Recover the amino acids of this structure.
């Protein structure tokens, strides 16, 4: 096309800076093979540009196009407000040399490459968009940047190329609550923490949009601020008016940037094949070089050996931006279990350990006779010193009968157990050698039982957890298939399953070696893939300060265990059995007939057929649904009081039945015969939010709201001469909510030590705190805690056993009284939808892959996203406390035994109780700092006694 720019022309403006950062953060590290130059972002950027060119064809193809970049981080806005964007960290070291290469890539594609000192790329885009519109043409901005949405309308549109999403005035209004011409007013009020635009403190996007809608524009709002009824909002707008006006200057794009070129110079031209192929070959992008050469009918230049841009190409072609392997970190050699070796003599083992000393890194894994680290015996150890170079050291494989009853003989060809451990100990405890493990806590405990303290170490399971929480599991087999494309040898192939299952010590050496050594090889390869990605994912601090240091702390706690009085449990089991019989008699009387209370089918028939409760739903088996949710709904039915009472008693019966089977009966079988104590196991990566999970047995789910549940804690006792001490964070999640949602009334109540539930009830229902009806306080408490979990009116009605309309009225009133909570919820969900994750105050990322789902799962995904930053921050704080605790109490005759949600439980000599409480409380109340300075104090309640029940 010749001539100038005018009517009928279509200008595409590509946000080049956004392309660069999107490519950098979505792709793994990639270096040029010939000289080690980082080129991962260039690879992603180049593939995105190529994809854009290929797709920008047809009737609506651009006649003119340009790629716009930021010249530097300093612009005219820093003169207006020096702190503008000062919160942004400097560009990563490996990204800086790639900036000029992306400009070269743009020019190689024969696209206009624009940047101007003193202005942001967005300002240049705004100027070109205005000029094109005034000339009668159309404009499409290729970007998803919210700051550019103020330009949409009157012939200017946006396109998120990665999502193929067109952004018009309606989409802008959906995001900001106002049409594009009012976006800067909303942004000026809401501010932007990323760019350090101050805005109006405590006012978010939703509130800002409502204010602009009510008053028309920002200036009118500020002039009439004294009319606003809400005191805090009124004072904020009056006191921060100047700051808000400055914020508007910062967010308003400049559309008068002096340009030394005209729109006609941006005419689309085909790239020169030789220039483009030369650049791609110089970058060593083999895949794209061949694709472009084929397109032009040319022979691809001879590529430099070794480098590839397959990952970048696949991502730019529309694959999800999942992490891929660094081609430099993981060799092309496939995993070959047949190549692994078995070590049966000290000389060979010494040679392997010498290689570990030389490289400073070794992957290690143990094979044992079972999964209980406190009772399983060590069978063998595997090592890997390089990808593909792995070995297995069998130590206790036997043949014949069971060792317990005789007949078992040690298989020939194995090292002496003690000799091997002595040699391994020299490496496993060497500070100069990094040990790599997958779920290292298990191996740490196994080695600790043999007198070996493994340090320092990395854990690939925890690396995965830090980076990919919420996306998938973190077991080795799943990670191997996901990131190495390799399915490990199944353990069932070796030990079988069911009644015929054998222990690993009975596995033949020729089969054990490839299986065991493969685990070490895979672990090392995963580590080489994951380690560089931690900083890219911005979770290095989370991994280094919250995940890895917790391993030895938990291991020591688990090995310590807690003393349990089995006679107390036995008596409780008898009491529960009698209580169940009594409840069954009452239930049968209400039903008018005997039936099996534990049978959901028979219970359903009684409720819906005999007693005539409406709304019964049958499943595929033909039986009525009688889950807890169904029964809880029935308990609220005023016109079916008999059925309501029956349902209530069945719920009680089920709770007692569970307490009996899960705790008072089962706990007696979990007492370790060697220690006389119960040793739970904590899963660090079990919950997406960072909460620890307790298993074998689960000590975190013992109910505390019922008298029966609380009594179970009587069985957890201190040895003679010692006490159990409990330190429990007081309402930590509500405190975090008050901080992140900026709730002045709640924060002040916490500071003054006021009963927060009574205060909430007083605020909502207008009743005095003094002499408050306990039922009203209970309702407020249910709402306070329910809101954290995104509770609905339906859920609250179940909890309080009140009509749904009444429960919804409570929630509506709550949000009216504490509008900051609704703002927090809306902004958190919006952030999750935009970024695919939410984040805690300490940087923990919880991915939310279902946040944009439709249908029944949508509500759950939103509630999970709202709750995760609150629950996750509480989990982070207690982790920080646990990690600091061993050093704080090292000189005391005390040890930490259990962690149960927000509570830490200790065993301490009687004379040191007060000293322990003071030391532990100091650690716990200061655990957030210095990383986070909360705007209200953390408070820890302490108790002591002969049992856990007395202490809590």
């Amino acid at each position: 096309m010749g001539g100038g720019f005018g009517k009928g022309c279509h200008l595409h403006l590509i946000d080049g800076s956004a392309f660069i950062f999107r490519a950098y953060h979505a792709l793994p590290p990639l270096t040029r093979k010939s000289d080690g130059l980082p080129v991962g972002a260039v690879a992603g950027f180049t593939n995105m540009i190529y994809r854009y060119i290929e797709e920008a064809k047809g009737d609506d193809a651009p006649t003119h196009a340009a790629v716009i970049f930021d010249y530097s981080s300093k612009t005219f806005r820093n003169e207006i407000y020096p702190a503008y964007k000062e919160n942004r960290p400097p560009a990563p070291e490996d990204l800086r040399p790639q900036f000029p290469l992306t400009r070269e890539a743009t020019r190689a594609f024969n696209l206009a490459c624009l940047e101007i000192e003193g202005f942001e790329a967005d300002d240049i885009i705004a100027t070109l968009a205005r000029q094109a519109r005034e000339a009668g043409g159309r404009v499409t901005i290729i970007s998803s940047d919210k700051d550019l949405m103020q330009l949409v309308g009157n012939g200017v549109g946006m396109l998120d190329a990665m999502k193929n999403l067109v952004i018009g005035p309606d989409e802008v209004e959906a995001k900001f609550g106002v049409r594009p011409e009012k976006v800067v007013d909303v942004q000026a009020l809401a501010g932007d923490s990323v760019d350090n635009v101050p805005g109006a403190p405590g006012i978010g996007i939703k509130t800002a949009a409502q204010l602009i809608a009510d008053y028309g524009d920002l200036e009118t709002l500020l002039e009439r601020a004294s009319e606003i009824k809400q005191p805090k909002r009124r004072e904020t707008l009056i006191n921060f008016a100047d700051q808000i006006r400055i914020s508007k200057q910062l967010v308003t794009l400049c559309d008068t940037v002096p340009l030394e070129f005209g729109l006609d110079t941006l005419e689309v031209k085909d790239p020169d094949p030789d220039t483009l192929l030369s650049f791609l070959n110089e970058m060593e992008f083999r895949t794209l070089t061949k694709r472009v050469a084929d397109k032009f009918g040319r022979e691809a230049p001879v590529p430099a050996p070794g480098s590839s841009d397959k990952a970048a190409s696949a991502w730019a072609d529309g694959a999800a931006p999942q992490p891929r392997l660094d081609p430099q970190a993981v060799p092309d050699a496939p995993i070959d279990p047949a190549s692994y070796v078995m070590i049966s003599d000290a000389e060979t083992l010494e040679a392997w350990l010498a290689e570990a000393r030389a490289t400073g890194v070794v992957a290690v894994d143990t094979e044992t006779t079972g999964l209980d680290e406190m009772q399983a015996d060590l069978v063998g150890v595997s090592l890997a010193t390089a990808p593909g170079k792995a070995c297995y050291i069998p130590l206790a494989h036997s043949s014949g009968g069971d060792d317990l009853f005789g007949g078992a003989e040690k298989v020939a060809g194995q090292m002496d157990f003690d000799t091997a451990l002595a040699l391994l100990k020299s490496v496993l405890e060497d500070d100069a050698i990094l040990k790599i493990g997958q779920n290292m806590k298990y191996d740490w405990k196994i080695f600790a039982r043999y007198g070996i303290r493994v340090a320092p170490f990395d854990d690939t399971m925890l690396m995965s957890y830090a980076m990919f929480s919420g996306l998938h599991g973190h077991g080795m087999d799943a990670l191997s298939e996901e990131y190495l494309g390799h399915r490990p040898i199944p353990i069932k192939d070796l030990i079988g399953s069911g009644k015929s299952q054998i222990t690993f010590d009975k596995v033949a050496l020729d089969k054990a070696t490839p299986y065991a050594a493969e685990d070490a090889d895979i672990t090392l390869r995963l580590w080489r893939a994951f380690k560089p990605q931690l900083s890219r994912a911005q979770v290095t601090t989370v991994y280094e300060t919250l995940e890895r240091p917790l391993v030895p702390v938990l291991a020591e706690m688990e090995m310590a265990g807690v003393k349990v009085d089995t006679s107390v449990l036995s008596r409780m089991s008898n009491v529960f059995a009698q209580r169940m019989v009594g409840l069954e008699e009452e239930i049968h009387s209400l039903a008018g007939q005997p039936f099996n209370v534990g049978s959901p089918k028979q219970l359903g028939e009684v409720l819906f057929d005999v007693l005539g409760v409406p709304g019964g739903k049958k499943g595929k088996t033909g039986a009525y649904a009688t889950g807890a949710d169904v029964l809880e709904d029935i308990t609220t039915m005023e016109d079916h009081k008999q059925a309501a009472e029956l349902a209530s008693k069945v719920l009680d019966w089920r709770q007692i039945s569970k307490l009996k089977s899960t705790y008072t009966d089962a706990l007696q079988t979990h007492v370790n015969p060697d220690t006389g104590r119960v040793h739970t196991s904590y899963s660090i990566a079990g919950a997406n939010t960072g909460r620890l999970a307790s298993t074998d047995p689960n000590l975190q789910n013992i109910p505390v709201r019922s008298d029966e549940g609380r009594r179970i804690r009587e069985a957890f006792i201190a040895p003679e001469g010692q006490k159990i001490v409990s330190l429990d964070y007081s309402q930590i999640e509500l405190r975090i909510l008050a901080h992140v949602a900026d709730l002045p009334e709640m924060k002040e109540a916490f500071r003054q030590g006021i009963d927060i539930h009574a205060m909430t009830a007083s605020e909502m229902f207008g009743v005095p705190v003094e002499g408050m009806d306990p039922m009203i306080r209970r309702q407020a408490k249910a709402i306070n805690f329910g809101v954290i979990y995104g509770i609905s009116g339906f859920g609250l009605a179940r909890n309080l056993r009140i009509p749904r309309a009444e429960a919804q009225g409570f929630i509506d009133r709550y949000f009216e009284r504490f509008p900051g909570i609704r703002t927090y919820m809306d902004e958190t969900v919006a952030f999750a939808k935009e970024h695919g994750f939410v984040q805690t105050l300490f940087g923990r990322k919880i991915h939310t892959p279902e946040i944009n789902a439709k249908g029944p799962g949508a509500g759950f995904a939103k509630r999970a996203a709202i709750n995760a930053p609150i629950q996750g921050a509480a989990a982070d704080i207690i982790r920080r406390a646990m990690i600091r605790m061993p050093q704080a109490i090292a000189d005391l005759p005390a040890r930490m035994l259990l962690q149960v949600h927000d509570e830490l439980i200790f065993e301490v000599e009687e004379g040191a109780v007060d000293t322990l409480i003071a030391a532990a409380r100091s650690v716990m109340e200061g655990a957030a700092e210095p990383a986070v300075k909360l705007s209200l104090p953390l408070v820890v309640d302490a108790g002591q006694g002969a049992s856990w029940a007395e202490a809590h």
Notes: The chain has a mean pLDDT of 88. The longest strand covers residues 378-386.
